[in-house]
Design goal:
Rossmann fold, 4 domains, 13 helices
Length: 651
């Protein structure tokens, strides 16, 4: 009887999917309803991800380079460890032309099209955290209006005041993720940076940056956005906020106005490393996003199993790239915020008209992601009097003269804020993304209800006032960082020249409390499993401080051993930033990360003679040198019991 019961239990076990919890319920339902040969687009999320907040070098180029190298290395190692590489290579051979694999190293994932059975097999692979449907997003419509006189919007945000000071965006690279850009427009062509690292078409499966070098736009939305951002004056009047800046662009929407989630992930990934060389500094300073999930108002789309771009936004900002989103056109009702604009890390922009009245269509807050103020600020995006809208570049369509149109919507408010940031960067090249945001918010003329509100945010963008606000940033000083290993707590103390009238926040941990009797800010954070290598405290007053200044990581070469018989050199090393950096033995090659032993190791063959020393260099900037030791080979050892002697022969 007991045996029969046990048998029934064992027989019932296989009915529970081995991948329970891995496949998103929406995708699971689709798999059950799909034919066995149907190709379904999915995104595979891998469980081993890089903590991008640990990269805190004051040098933006160094920080970004280290981050990109770590993201790529971790992705490659996870794919290898999970046995996904061989599986996918075999799939590419057996089903050529159908998979369209995308390596999404920036978010730690993969995107592909596969049959239901293949997807179920993927779900059983180690290191696979989740599989969800690669969903489609629609581009916002371009609301065009009648032609009219010269623009008013540039004066409204104080752009010309900064032009008069000599700041037009020069030295700044801005990016647009949109429907593309018509590079043939005379107001936009001269401002394009040009080259294979300045245009990316996520829709084209055969895209080759060395061949497909010409930006284009069949919709017009992206061209109109870029016109407001950096447009020139070929038509007789300036149309762009930052005409001295250079632009690059990623096309995510196809001719039908649709984009897969994976295509957007890939576009963001491209922005982080446009030429696929982490050691070059060709990423943009600001990225404008005039799109969002308008069909899902008052929803925070960030959890696993749904379309989410929060990790993308966090990574871009940590790399020193400011991220701006349009607030959406779901107004006038409250609770109409949309993702990704409503992420805490996003800078969202609503629309006002020439009288600085909120546009009826402009989305209102509070944010669905935490209830914060939404939008962040407002900028021109409507016009109450005829002609209605903002004058900007239109598709050329082969016309000999510059073509223009008038547009309305928060899509066209966002580039005003992005352009204002470009003007500030041309004046203050070292400003971090949070400082650009702070400058625009703290200087914005207050509109509507007193203080930040959920219609106008912090107020109306004013580039001229923001320029002055930067000069008034407070000075932040980190006074102490203490980690208690036993309690797993981290205590941070800091001060500001504007205390106690500002708030201080330790990035990656949270806000510090004002302690009046100590005359400083302090907070003890619990559940911190390991001490941070570095941290940054930022102020609502614009200032910030880093602890310590992490110029390089610390590399330790544990040993370097030469085997004279096998002619091999074995090098073992570690790094304070492992495993998120790469280590190379100078003159020999890359060391391999060993998860089990938590170290880097490699045995190099064909080394004819023992070197006196080996230097190991890290992508994190550190290096260390170690003396090479020989392996002693004992050929034989003879003990003479009578003479009480031991004879050893070795080499």
């Amino acid at each position: 009887m007991f045996g029969a019961v046990a048998c029934l239990i064992l027989l019932s076990c296989p009915l529970v999917p081995l991948y329970a919890g891995v496949v998103d319920p929406k995708l699971e339902k689709l798999l059950a309803e799909s034919g066995s040969q149907e190709r379904i687009p999915v995104i595979v999320s891998l469980s081993d991800k890089v903590n991008v907040h640990q990269f805190r070098s004051r040098d933006k180029k160094v920080r970004r380079s280290r981050m990109v190298k770590a993201l790529k290395q971790r992705h490659e190692e996870t794919v290898r460890r999970s046995s996904l590489r061989g599986f996918l290579e075999n799939l590419a051979r057996t089903e050529p032309g159908t998979m369209r694999l995308r390596n999404l190293w920036m978010i730690g994932g993969l995107a592909l099209k596969a049959r239901p059975q293949v997807i179920r097999t993927l779900a059983q692979k180690p290191w696979v955290e989740a599989i969800r449907l690669d969903q489609t997003i629609q581009a916002p419509p371009t609301i065009t209006t009648l032609d009219g006189p010269a623009e008013w919007n540039l004066t409204a945000i104080g752009a010309q005041d900064l032009w008069d000071l000599g700041y037009t965006g020069q030295g700044v690279i801005v990016a647009s993720v949109d429907t593309g850009v018509d590079v043939s427009h005379p107001d936009l062509g001269p401002q394009w940076r040009g080259g294979a690292n300045s245009w990316f078409d996520a829709n084209d499966p055969n895209f080759n940056p060395l061949v497909d070098t010409e930006p284009y736009d069949t919709d017009g939305h992206g061209t109109a956005v870029m016109g407001i951002l950096v447009g020139g004056n070929a038509g007789g009047a300036s149309i762009g906020v930052a005409p001295g800046a250079k632009w690059i662009a990623a096309k995510i929407f196809d001719e039908n106005g649709a984009a897969l989630e994976s295509e957007i992930h890939e576009a963001f990934q491209w922005l982080l490393d446009p030429d696929e060389n982490p050691d070059t500094d060709d990423a943009p300073d600001i990225v404008n996003n005039s799109w969002g999930f308008g069909q899902n108002p008052d929803v925070c789309i960030e959890e696993v199993g749904s379309v989410s771009f929060r990790r993308d936004v966090q990574t871009l900002k940590q790399a020193g790239i400011a991220v701006v989103f349009s607030a959406g056109n779901g107004g006038p009702s409250t609770y109409t915020s949309v993702s990704p604009a409503n992420y805490p890390e996003s800078f969202s922009v609503g629309a006002v008209d020439e009288m600085q009245n909120a546009a009826s269509f402009s989305a209102r807050g509070p944010s669905a992601c935490g209830g914060g103020v939404y939008p962040s600020v407002t900028a021109p995006g409507d016009r109450a009097a005829s002609p209605y809208g903002i004058r900007t570049a239109d598709l050329m369509l082969g016309l000999p003269n510059p073509s223009y149109t008038y547009v309305r919507g928060t899509s066209f408010s966002a580039p005003h804020a992005s352009g204002a940031m470009a003007l500030l960067l041309s004046a203050y090249p070292d400003l971090a993304p949070h400082q650009l945001e702070t400058a625009l918010k703290m200087s914005a003329p207050d509109l509507g209800a007193a203080g930040p509100d959920n219609v106008y945010g912090y107020g109306h963008v004013d580039a001229s006032s923001a320029h002055g606000a930067v000069q008034d940033f407070d000075v932040v000083r980190i006074d102490g960082v203490f980690y208690d290993n036993a309690a797993q707590t981290l205590t941070i103390a800091a001060a500001s020249t504007d205390q106690p009238n500002v708030t201080l926040k330790a990035e990656g941990f949270g806000s510090l409390d004002w302690i009046s009797w100590k005359n400083c800010y302090s907070k003890t954070f619990s559940g911190v499993t390991s001490p941070p290598d570095a941290l940054t405290v930022i102020s609502s007053g614009g200032g910030s401080d880093a602890w310590p200044d992490p110029a390089t990581d610390t590399v330790t070469v544990k040993h370097a051993i030469y085997d004279d018989v096998a002619r091999t050199l074995t090098v073992v090393a570690s790094s304070s930033l492992q495993p998120d950096v790469t280590l190379d033995a100078a003159g020999y090659g890359r060391l391999y990360w060993r998860e089990a032993s938590s170290q880097y190791k490699r045995t190099f063959a064909g080394v004819a003679s023992p070197p006196s020393s080996v230097t190991v260099q890290s992508s994190g900037g550190g290096s260390a040198t170690c003396t090479v030791k020989d392996i002693v080979n004992i050929k034989h050892a003879i003990y003479d019991a009578v003479a009480r002697t031991l004879t050893v022969i070795a080499a």
